[in-house]
């Protein structure tokens, strides 16, 4: 059996099966940079045997739909995003560099605002979307890996299903998150600098937060889980200790030079294995679209059957409209015959006939206008009917019926998965038989060893057992020493981050203290508050302070060009002087002198807010 297919069948397949039953599932790939995380998740599309976990899940999902019952309906939608430098980006959106906000609601939990989602009809649609997103993903070259992923990618597949039994429809929804984490890396090995170093710092920071979350969940004594310290952990909040079946694939390097990173990865995954999640089936979720689509389809079908449409505020029945048109034609013909008979009596009653003829012509024109209006109404009704039919067809195409073959090109992949499952079952059966045989042999051997014919044999036997115990003890001591060394390295890394942040903080304080007086710093602190929704600090009434007001002033100055020559002050900033006035200082001059007595206008505006 191929190793990649073997990996999917043994590890990922049970998770996808649970998602199809209505549970949430997450599969993460974690490891050092260059160890094959992306290859594990995506693989190589050249042949079915080399495809990764994500493409194999496509064939698995639509193979399940093809085997489902006819009274079961499905809706499959997908989204693809990345976390690059702690910014969430939509890999399927039009604005690739736009940063999206992470929100949270009590009914649906954590979500990404304005993230695009697409309804898919078969495995090929999913495959094309994955390829499009991979092209837009941030990738860079380092000394360790020429195609290093510089972002965490999350490929989400939402599967909604409804089963109708005796006019009772039950909807359930499962969400599968396939996460390709960026690799942890050491600057001493990658020799990263500039943008690559900044990316590596953000990657290591988010992975460190992920490790802290895992440790806090395993510890069980922590009252606070730091999910909000990183966008990654916040988006994976349900996957870590929440409502999800979660699997972590740890990728390691066979190189001796990466021994330390390999041990660290295995311990990281070992801690994650101890997390206890609480997954439950999602029945009738509030954000499910399938039930809404089915209700809309029923309403559209009812409108088509009744043939009633709203046009210009009046209800028009399509069938009745045809009858009205025919009646109008008959009335016109009758009126024509009457007018001929009346024309024969023209000589006898000239005045009366003339008046009657004028009246007849007016009635005829009125009937013709009425017929034209009904014809227009009929055309509009038919147009409305066509629109409803098109909308109905579109909604029906989005909903997949059980029992339909939707694999197309993925048939070969599905057949390979089924063959691998059969081979796996045969292998497991043979393994169980061998395990039972081995247990019997081991029991007989132990029984023989326990029977000693003399004290000397007993001494030799117990000495061997003691040596085994000592070997186990030495192994545990060695592992403990390795763990202590790894902990020391992690502490040094944390201390280095603390020192770096302290230097940045000191620089910020130096700039603030040299450019903003103490009383205005206190004022700014007073009007600063923590925004829980976006997870950032914000300043109240910031639109009325600082350069925001200067922009408006500059626009006013531009409008006043006729009266006075406009001076561009966009490159000028303000400083404090002894006289209490502000003076313009250009960026290339020496650092301006500061004084608490100077009060620029934009700080005066902050003060006036109070």
Structure description:
Keywords: ATP-binding, Cytoplasm, Cytoskeleton, Microtubule, Motor protein, Nucleotide-binding. One of its GO terms (molecular function) is microtubule motor activity. This is Kinesin-like protein. With about 600 residues, this protein is of the alpha+beta class. The chain contains 16 helices and 18 strands. α3 (about 55-65) packs antiparallel against α4. The model is unreliable at about 310-330 and about 580-610 (pLDDT under 50).
Radius of gyration: 37 Å
**Low-pLDDT residue intervals, each spanning 5 or more residues:** 309-330, 578-610
CATH architecture of the largest domain: 3-Layer(aba) Sandwich
Number of domains: 4
What is the CATH first-level class name of the largest domain?
Answer: Alpha Beta
Q: In percent, how much strand structure appears in the residues?
A: 15-25%
Name of the CATH homologous superfamily of the largest domain: Kinesin motor domain
Query: Between the first and last Cα atoms, what is the distance in angstroms?
Result: 73 Å
Helical region count? Answer: 16
Structural class: alpha+beta
Query: Can you count the beta strands?
Result: 18
| Mean of pLDDT | 76
Main β-sheet description: 8 strands, mixed
Helical content stands at: 40-55%
* Shape descriptor: flat
CATH fold type of the largest domain: Kinesin
Q: Which properties best describe this structure?
A:
single chain, 610 residues, alpha+beta, Kinesin, 4 domains, eight-stranded mixed beta sheet, two-stranded antiparallel ribbon, 16 helices, 18 strands, flat, disordered C terminus, microtubule, ATP-binding
């Amino acid at each position: 059996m191929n190793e990649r297919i073997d990996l999917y069948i043994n590890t990922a397949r049970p998770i996808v099966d649970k998602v199809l039953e209505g549970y949430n599932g997450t599969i993460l790939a974690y490891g050092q940079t260059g160890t094959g995380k992306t290859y594990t998740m995506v693989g190589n599309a050249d042949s079915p045997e080399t495809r990764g976990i994500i493409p194999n899940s496509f064939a698995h999902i639509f193979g399940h739909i093809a085997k489902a019952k006819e009274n079961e309906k499905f809706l499959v939608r997908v989204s693809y995003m990345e976390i690059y430098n702690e910014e969430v980006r939509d890999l399927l959106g039009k604005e690739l560099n736009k940063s999206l906000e992470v929100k949270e609601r009590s009914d649906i939990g954590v979500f990404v605002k304005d993230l695009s989602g697409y309804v898919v009809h078969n495995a090929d649609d999913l495959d094309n979307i994955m390829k499009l997103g991979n092209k837009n993903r941030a990738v860079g070259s380092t000394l360790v890996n020429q195609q290093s992923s510089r972002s965490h990618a999350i490929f989400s597949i939402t599967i909604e299903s409804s089963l109708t039994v005796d006019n009772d429809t039950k909807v359930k929804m499962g969400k599968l998150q396939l996460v390709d984490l960026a690799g942890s890396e050491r600057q001493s090995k990658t020799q990263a600098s500039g943008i690559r170093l900044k990316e590596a710092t953000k990657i290591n920071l988010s992975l460190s937060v992920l490790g802290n979350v895992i440790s806090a969940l395993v510890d069980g004594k922590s009252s606070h889980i730091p999910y909000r310290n990183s966008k990654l952990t916040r988006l994976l909040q349900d996957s870590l200790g929440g409502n999800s079946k979660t699997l972590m694939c740890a990728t390691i390097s066979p190189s001796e030079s990466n021994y330390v990173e390999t041990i660290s990865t295995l311990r990281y995954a070992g801690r994650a294995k101890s997390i206890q999640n609480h997954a439950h089936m999602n029945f009738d979720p509030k954000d499910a679209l399938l039930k809404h689509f089915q209700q809309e389809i029923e309403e559209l079908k009812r409108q088509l059957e009744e043939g009633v449409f709203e046009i210009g505020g009046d209800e028009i029945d399509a069938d009745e409209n045809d009858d009205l048109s025919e009646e109008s034609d008959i009335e016109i013909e009758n009126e024509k015959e009457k007018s001929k008979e009346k024309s024969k009596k023209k000589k006898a009653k000239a005045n009366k006939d003339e008046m009657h003829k004028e009246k007849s012509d007016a009635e005829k024109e009125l009937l013709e206008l009425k017929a034209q209006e009904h014809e227009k109404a009929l055309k509009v009704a038919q147009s409305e009917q066509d629109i409803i039919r098109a909308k109905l067809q579109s909604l029906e195409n989005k909903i997949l019926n059980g029992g339909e073959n939707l694999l197309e090109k993925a048939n070969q992949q599905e057949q390979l998965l089924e063959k691998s499952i059969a081979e796996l079952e045969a292998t497991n059966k043979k393994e169980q038989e061998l395990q039972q045989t081995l247990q019997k042999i081991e029991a007989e051997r132990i029984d023989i060893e326990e029977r000693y014919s003399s004290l000397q044999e007993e001494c030799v036997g117990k000495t061997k057992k003691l040596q085994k115990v000592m070997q186990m003890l030495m192994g545990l001591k060695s592992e403990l020493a390795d763990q202590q060394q790894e902990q020391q390295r992690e502490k040094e890394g944390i201390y280095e981050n603390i020192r770096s942040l302290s230097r940045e903080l000191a620089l910020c304080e130096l700039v603030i203290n040299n450019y903003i007086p103490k009383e205005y710093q206190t004022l700014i602190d007073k009007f600063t508050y923590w925004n829980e929704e976006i997870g950032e600090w914000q300043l109240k009434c910031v639109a009325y302070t600082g350069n925001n007001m200067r922009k408006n002033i500059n626009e006013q100055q531009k409008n006043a060009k006729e009266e006075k020559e406009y001076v561009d002050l966009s490159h000028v900033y303000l400083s404090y002087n002894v006289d209490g006035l502000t003076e313009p200082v250009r960026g290339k001059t020496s650092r301006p002198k500061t004084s608490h007595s100077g009060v620029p206008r934009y700080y005066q505006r902050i003060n006036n807010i109070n």
